[in-house]
TrEMBL record:
It holds the Pfam family Methyltransf_11. Signal peptide: none annotated. The keyword Transferase applies. This is Methyltransferase domain-containing protein. GO terms for biological process: methylation. One of its GO terms (molecular function) is methyltransferase activity. PANTHER family: GERANYL DIPHOSPHATE 2-C-METHYLTRANSFERASE (PTHR44068:SF11), ZGC:194242 (PTHR44068).
Amino acid sequence: MAEQRIPTAADVGNMYDQSTDLLSEVMGGNIHLGYWHSDEDDASVEQATDTLTDMVAERLGLSSGLRVLDVGCGSGKPAVRIAGRWDVHVTGITISAQQAETAGARPEVGENSGQVAFQQGDGMALPFGDAQFDGVYAIESFLHMSDRGKAIAEAARVLRPGGTLVTANPYQQGELDEREAEIVAANRRLFQIPPLGDAGTYVAHMENAGLKVVEVLDIGENVRRSHTLAAAAIRQATETFDDAFTEQLTEAADIIERFGDLPQVGYGIIVARKL
Protein backbone atom coordinates (compact mmCIF):
# COMPACT_ATOMS: atom_id res chain seq x y z
CA MET A 1 0.00 0.00 0.00
CA ALA A 2 1.40 3.39 -1.02
CA GLU A 3 2.38 5.83 1.72
CA GLN A 4 -0.40 8.32 2.44
CA ARG A 5 0.05 12.06 2.21
CA ILE A 6 0.25 13.74 5.62
CA PRO A 7 -2.65 16.22 5.96
CA THR A 8 -1.88 19.86 6.62
CA ALA A 9 -3.65 22.07 9.15
CA ALA A 10 -5.56 23.58 6.21
CA ASP A 11 -6.72 20.12 5.15
CA VAL A 12 -8.08 19.45 8.62
CA GLY A 13 -9.76 22.84 8.79
CA ASN A 14 -11.44 22.35 5.43
CA MET A 15 -12.67 18.90 6.42
CA TYR A 16 -14.30 20.26 9.56
CA ASP A 17 -15.69 23.27 7.72
CA GLN A 18 -17.64 20.81 5.60
CA SER A 19 -18.53 18.15 8.17
CA THR A 20 -19.06 19.87 11.52
CA ASP A 21 -22.82 20.29 11.25
CA LEU A 22 -23.39 16.63 10.36
CA LEU A 23 -20.93 15.28 12.92
CA SER A 24 -22.41 17.47 15.65
CA GLU A 25 -25.90 16.21 14.81
CA VAL A 26 -24.71 12.59 14.83
CA MET A 27 -22.75 12.87 18.10
CA GLY A 28 -25.31 14.66 20.26
CA GLY A 29 -23.93 18.16 19.78
CA ASN A 30 -20.34 17.12 20.48
CA ILE A 31 -17.75 16.07 17.91
CA HIS A 32 -16.05 13.29 19.84
CA LEU A 33 -16.74 9.71 20.84
CA GLY A 34 -18.90 8.73 23.79
CA TYR A 35 -18.19 6.64 26.89
CA TRP A 36 -20.49 3.82 28.03
CA HIS A 37 -19.81 2.19 31.39
CA SER A 38 -20.77 -1.31 30.21
CA ASP A 39 -22.63 -3.20 27.49
CA GLU A 40 -25.78 -2.75 29.59
CA ASP A 41 -25.39 1.04 29.78
CA ASP A 42 -28.33 2.48 27.80
CA ALA A 43 -27.10 6.08 27.72
CA SER A 44 -27.87 8.08 24.59
CA VAL A 45 -25.07 9.30 22.32
CA GLU A 46 -25.42 12.78 23.79
CA GLN A 47 -25.20 11.46 27.34
CA ALA A 48 -22.21 9.28 26.47
CA THR A 49 -20.29 12.07 24.74
CA ASP A 50 -21.03 14.40 27.66
CA THR A 51 -19.71 11.69 30.00
CA LEU A 52 -16.42 11.65 28.12
CA THR A 53 -16.23 15.44 28.40
CA ASP A 54 -16.74 15.13 32.17
CA MET A 55 -14.07 12.43 32.47
CA VAL A 56 -11.58 14.79 30.86
CA ALA A 57 -12.63 17.75 33.00
CA GLU A 58 -12.50 15.76 36.25
CA ARG A 59 -8.81 15.07 35.62
CA LEU A 60 -7.92 18.76 35.22
CA GLY A 61 -8.19 19.44 38.96
CA LEU A 62 -10.46 22.43 38.43
CA SER A 63 -11.69 24.97 40.95
CA SER A 64 -13.72 28.15 40.57
CA GLY A 65 -12.09 30.95 38.63
CA LEU A 66 -9.33 28.98 36.89
CA ARG A 67 -8.53 29.53 33.22
CA VAL A 68 -8.57 26.55 30.86
CA LEU A 69 -7.63 26.04 27.21
CA ASP A 70 -9.58 23.70 24.91
CA VAL A 71 -7.32 22.71 21.98
CA GLY A 72 -9.65 21.72 19.15
CA CYS A 73 -12.91 23.01 20.62
CA GLY A 74 -15.19 21.65 17.89
CA SER A 75 -18.77 22.80 18.28
CA GLY A 76 -17.96 24.52 21.58
CA LYS A 77 -20.28 22.29 23.59
CA PRO A 78 -17.56 20.69 25.75
CA ALA A 79 -16.11 24.10 26.63
CA VAL A 80 -19.54 25.43 27.61
CA ARG A 81 -20.25 22.35 29.71
CA ILE A 82 -16.92 22.52 31.54
CA ALA A 83 -17.10 26.28 32.10
CA GLY A 84 -20.59 26.04 33.58
CA ARG A 85 -20.18 22.89 35.70
CA TRP A 86 -16.80 23.84 37.17
CA ASP A 87 -17.19 27.65 37.19
CA VAL A 88 -14.03 28.23 35.17
CA HIS A 89 -13.28 30.28 32.08
CA VAL A 90 -12.55 28.18 28.98
CA THR A 91 -10.85 29.50 25.85
CA GLY A 92 -11.37 27.27 22.85
CA ILE A 93 -9.36 27.26 19.65
CA THR A 94 -10.09 25.40 16.43
CA ILE A 95 -8.43 25.22 13.02
CA SER A 96 -11.88 25.37 11.39
CA ALA A 97 -13.28 28.78 10.50
CA GLN A 98 -16.82 27.42 10.61
CA GLN A 99 -16.36 25.89 14.03
CA ALA A 100 -14.93 29.14 15.37
CA GLU A 101 -17.93 31.03 14.03
CA THR A 102 -20.48 28.48 15.29
CA ALA A 103 -18.93 28.17 18.75
CA GLY A 104 -18.43 31.92 18.99
CA ALA A 105 -22.16 32.50 18.49
CA ARG A 106 -23.05 30.60 21.67
CA PRO A 107 -24.82 32.73 24.30
CA GLU A 108 -22.34 31.66 26.99
CA VAL A 109 -19.49 33.60 25.36
CA GLY A 110 -17.84 36.07 27.74
CA GLU A 111 -14.74 36.68 29.82
CA ASN A 112 -15.99 35.84 33.32
CA SER A 113 -15.77 32.60 35.26
CA GLY A 114 -18.37 30.17 33.96
CA GLN A 115 -18.11 31.63 30.46
CA VAL A 116 -16.22 30.81 27.27
CA ALA A 117 -14.34 32.42 24.40
CA PHE A 118 -13.49 30.96 21.00
CA GLN A 119 -11.09 31.77 18.18
CA GLN A 120 -9.53 30.20 15.14
CA GLY A 121 -6.00 28.97 15.75
CA ASP A 122 -3.47 26.22 15.17
CA GLY A 123 -2.72 23.83 18.03
CA MET A 124 0.85 23.47 16.76
CA ALA A 125 1.42 27.24 17.12
CA LEU A 126 -0.80 28.45 19.94
CA PRO A 127 -1.54 32.20 19.86
CA PHE A 128 -0.95 32.64 23.60
CA GLY A 129 1.94 33.62 25.83
CA ASP A 130 3.74 31.29 28.19
CA ALA A 131 2.05 29.99 31.35
CA GLN A 132 -1.37 31.55 30.73
CA PHE A 133 -3.62 28.58 31.60
CA ASP A 134 -4.22 26.46 34.68
CA GLY A 135 -5.33 23.51 32.57
CA VAL A 136 -5.27 22.40 28.95
CA TYR A 137 -7.31 19.64 27.37
CA ALA A 138 -7.49 18.20 23.87
CA ILE A 139 -10.29 15.79 22.95
CA GLU A 140 -9.50 14.03 19.66
CA SER A 141 -7.59 17.02 18.27
CA PHE A 142 -3.93 15.98 18.63
CA LEU A 143 -5.09 13.03 16.51
CA HIS A 144 -5.19 15.34 13.46
CA MET A 145 -1.90 17.17 13.98
CA SER A 146 1.02 16.42 11.70
CA ASP A 147 3.56 17.23 14.44
CA ARG A 148 2.07 15.93 17.67
CA GLY A 149 5.30 16.51 19.56
CA LYS A 150 5.15 20.21 18.70
CA ALA A 151 1.45 20.40 19.61
CA ILE A 152 2.07 18.82 23.01
CA ALA A 153 5.10 21.08 23.58
CA GLU A 154 2.88 24.08 22.82
CA ALA A 155 0.28 22.86 25.32
CA ALA A 156 3.04 22.50 27.93
CA ARG A 157 4.36 25.98 27.14
CA VAL A 158 1.06 27.74 27.84
CA LEU A 159 0.47 25.76 31.06
CA ARG A 160 1.34 27.32 34.39
CA PRO A 161 3.60 25.30 36.71
CA GLY A 162 1.42 22.75 38.47
CA GLY A 163 -1.12 22.82 35.65
CA THR A 164 -2.51 19.71 34.00
CA LEU A 165 -2.80 18.55 30.40
CA VAL A 166 -5.46 15.95 29.59
CA THR A 167 -5.76 14.32 26.18
CA ALA A 168 -8.32 11.86 24.83
CA ASN A 169 -7.45 10.16 21.56
CA PRO A 170 -7.78 7.03 19.47
CA TYR A 171 -4.49 5.25 18.78
CA GLN A 172 -3.18 2.01 17.35
CA GLN A 173 -2.33 -0.98 19.51
CA GLY A 174 -0.86 -3.99 17.75
CA GLU A 175 0.02 -4.85 14.18
CA LEU A 176 -2.39 -4.65 11.23
CA ASP A 177 -2.70 -7.10 8.38
CA GLU A 178 -3.19 -5.79 4.83
CA ARG A 179 -6.99 -5.66 5.05
CA GLU A 180 -6.92 -3.96 8.43
CA ALA A 181 -4.29 -1.48 7.28
CA GLU A 182 -6.53 -0.46 4.37
CA ILE A 183 -9.45 0.14 6.75
CA VAL A 184 -7.27 2.41 8.88
CA ALA A 185 -5.97 4.16 5.77
CA ALA A 186 -9.53 4.81 4.56
CA ASN A 187 -10.49 6.32 7.91
CA ARG A 188 -7.36 8.47 7.88
CA ARG A 189 -8.27 9.79 4.42
CA LEU A 190 -11.86 10.46 5.48
CA PHE A 191 -10.92 12.44 8.60
CA GLN A 192 -7.56 13.92 7.55
CA ILE A 193 -5.46 12.02 10.09
CA PRO A 194 -1.69 11.37 10.04
CA PRO A 195 -0.48 7.90 11.12
CA LEU A 196 -2.34 7.00 14.32
CA GLY A 197 0.65 6.32 16.55
CA ASP A 198 0.30 4.52 19.87
CA ALA A 199 -0.16 5.47 23.51
CA GLY A 200 3.56 5.22 24.16
CA THR A 201 4.29 7.87 21.56
CA TYR A 202 1.93 10.34 23.24
CA VAL A 203 3.55 9.62 26.60
CA ALA A 204 7.02 10.16 25.14
CA HIS A 205 5.98 13.50 23.62
CA MET A 206 4.65 14.63 27.00
CA GLU A 207 7.82 13.62 28.82
CA ASN A 208 9.94 15.36 26.17
CA ALA A 209 7.89 18.52 26.78
CA GLY A 210 8.82 18.43 30.47
CA LEU A 211 5.51 17.02 31.71
CA LYS A 212 5.08 14.21 34.22
CA VAL A 213 2.56 11.60 33.06
CA VAL A 214 0.35 10.57 35.98
CA GLU A 215 -2.36 8.47 34.29
CA VAL A 216 -2.87 6.45 31.12
CA LEU A 217 -6.44 5.12 31.05
CA ASP A 218 -7.42 2.68 28.30
CA ILE A 219 -11.13 3.10 27.49
CA GLY A 220 -11.13 1.61 24.01
CA GLU A 221 -13.93 -0.85 24.68
CA ASN A 222 -16.04 1.80 26.42
CA VAL A 223 -16.06 4.11 23.38
CA ARG A 224 -16.28 1.48 20.63
CA ARG A 225 -20.08 1.68 20.43
CA SER A 226 -19.72 5.26 19.16
CA HIS A 227 -18.60 4.10 15.73
CA THR A 228 -21.58 1.80 15.22
CA LEU A 229 -24.09 4.41 16.35
CA ALA A 230 -22.45 7.17 14.31
CA ALA A 231 -22.50 5.01 11.18
CA ALA A 232 -26.19 4.20 11.71
CA ALA A 233 -27.06 7.87 12.21
CA ILE A 234 -25.16 8.89 9.07
CA ARG A 235 -26.99 6.23 7.03
CA GLN A 236 -30.29 7.56 8.36
CA ALA A 237 -29.27 11.11 7.43
CA THR A 238 -28.80 10.07 3.79
CA GLU A 239 -32.57 10.13 3.36
CA THR A 240 -32.45 13.93 3.19
CA PHE A 241 -29.70 14.25 0.54
CA ASP A 242 -29.44 13.70 -3.20
CA ASP A 243 -28.16 10.45 -4.69
CA ALA A 244 -24.56 11.56 -5.23
CA PHE A 245 -24.09 12.81 -1.66
CA THR A 246 -25.97 9.80 -0.29
CA GLU A 247 -23.40 7.51 -1.90
CA GLN A 248 -20.55 9.45 -0.29
CA LEU A 249 -22.19 9.36 3.13
CA THR A 250 -22.93 5.66 2.87
CA GLU A 251 -19.29 4.97 2.06
CA ALA A 252 -18.22 7.15 5.01
CA ALA A 253 -20.55 5.26 7.35
CA ASP A 254 -19.09 1.94 6.20
CA ILE A 255 -15.53 3.19 6.82
CA ILE A 256 -16.40 4.47 10.30
CA GLU A 257 -18.04 1.20 11.29
CA ARG A 258 -15.23 -1.01 9.99
CA PHE A 259 -12.62 1.20 11.70
CA GLY A 260 -14.44 1.00 15.03
CA ASP A 261 -14.62 -2.80 14.81
CA LEU A 262 -10.84 -3.19 14.68
CA PRO A 263 -9.48 -4.47 18.03
CA GLN A 264 -6.20 -2.72 17.23
CA VAL A 265 -7.94 0.66 17.45
CA GLY A 266 -7.59 1.71 21.06
CA TYR A 267 -8.56 4.89 22.85
CA GLY A 268 -6.99 6.46 25.88
CA ILE A 269 -7.16 9.35 28.30
CA ILE A 270 -3.65 10.52 29.23
CA VAL A 271 -3.02 12.96 32.08
CA ALA A 272 0.23 14.86 32.61
CA ARG A 273 1.30 17.66 34.95
CA LYS A 274 3.74 20.52 34.51
CA LEU A 275 6.27 20.50 37.31
